[in-house]
Amino acid sequence: MKTKLFELCGILAVCLFVSCNRDKLYYSYAEVANVKLNVDWSQTNITPNGVSAYIFDYNTGFAIGQEIISNDINSVKLELPQGQYDILVINDTEYELENIDFNNTTKLSDFVALIHRLADSKYGLNRASKNVGYATDCDVLAYDLIKEVTIDRHDIDYYQERPSVGGDEHIVYKEITAKPKQVTEVVEIVIDVMNINSAAGAPRSQLTDIVAGFTFALGAKLNDLVIHEFALNNRVIDPDNYKKGRISKRFVCFGPNIADNLRAIYEGKLIMNFALTNGDLYPIEIMVGNILERTHNGYEYINKIHTEITLPESIGNGDGVFNPDVEEWEDVDVEMPI
Fold first, then answer.
1. Element (DSSP H or E) covering residue 84
2. What's the pTM?
3. What are the backbone angles phi and psi of residue 66, rounded to the nearest 5°?
4. Distance (Å, whole) CA 50 – CA 167
5. What integer is the mean pLDDT of 5-12?
6. Do the Cβ atoms of 91 and 70 come closer than 8 Å?
C-alpha cells in the first residue's frame, strides 16, 4: 500500500514539474503586417495637406477596402494581411481635389483621374463637337504607384506577450517608400496687344485639345480631350504708350495633347473673344503649335504660349461699355518690356 502511495506521489510530482515547463502563451496583435509607408515629396514642388493610399490586390487588380488617409504628409500606417499588393499614393484626398474626378477606384486598371468638366461652355462658346467637354479649373496632382509589394508569413507581427505600447501605436515590421511625381502641367499664355485701349474688358478665351485626365495603371495621359476655358484678365499697360499692353493667364491642367513619340506639334487653338469699347465683338483664333514652348522645371512641364495681336481701333474711352459678358481686368503694376 505504501509502495503504491509513493508511486502516486511520484507521478503527481512529475506532472507538476512538467506543467511548470509549459510553452509560452503568444499574443497576436493581428493577422497583418504593420507596414510604414514613407512618402518623399522631394520630386515635387507642392506641400500637400495629407496623403491618400489606395491598396490593390496584385493578382486581381481589385481594391482592398477604402483608401487610407493620413494627415501626416510624410507617412501612412498600413496593416496588410499576407499577399501581394500594388499601392497607389496621391497628394491630399479626393474631396480636397474638387476639380478632379477620381473614377473607377475599385480596380487599378480602370482607375483614372479626370478634370471636372461641363457639357456646355460657361461662356456660351460651344464648339461643333458634342463629345468635347469644357473645363475651367484643375488641381495639382502628384502620384506614385508601388508595384508588387509582398507580405509573407514572416512579415506578420507576433509577440510573446502583449505589447507595452498603448493606443494605436505598434511595432513596425516593414517599411516602403513612395516618391510621387506631378502629372499635372502648367500653361502660361502671354499676349502682347496693340490697341489694348480698344478692349472693353478681358477676353473670354479657350484653349483646345487639352488632355482630359490620367490613367494610373499605365502612368499615361488619356486620349480623351477637353476645351479649357478662362479669362485672359491679367493686364499690364506700357507706361510709355497706353495703346500697348500685355495680357496673360497661368493655369494648371493635364497638359496639351502632345505625345512626344507620336506628335511633334501641338494642334490646339487659342480662341480669344474680345468685346470692344464700341460694342462690337472681335474674335481671334490662333494655331499655337508652332509657338508653344514646352520645358520642364524639374518638377512639372511648363507650356508657354507667347504671341502678338493687334485690335482694331475702337471709339470709346478705353474703360469699356456696359456688357454683362465682359470680364474685368486684373491690372498688374510692373514694368513691361515690349
1. strand 83-91
2. 0.83
3. -85, 165
4. 22
5. 55
6. no
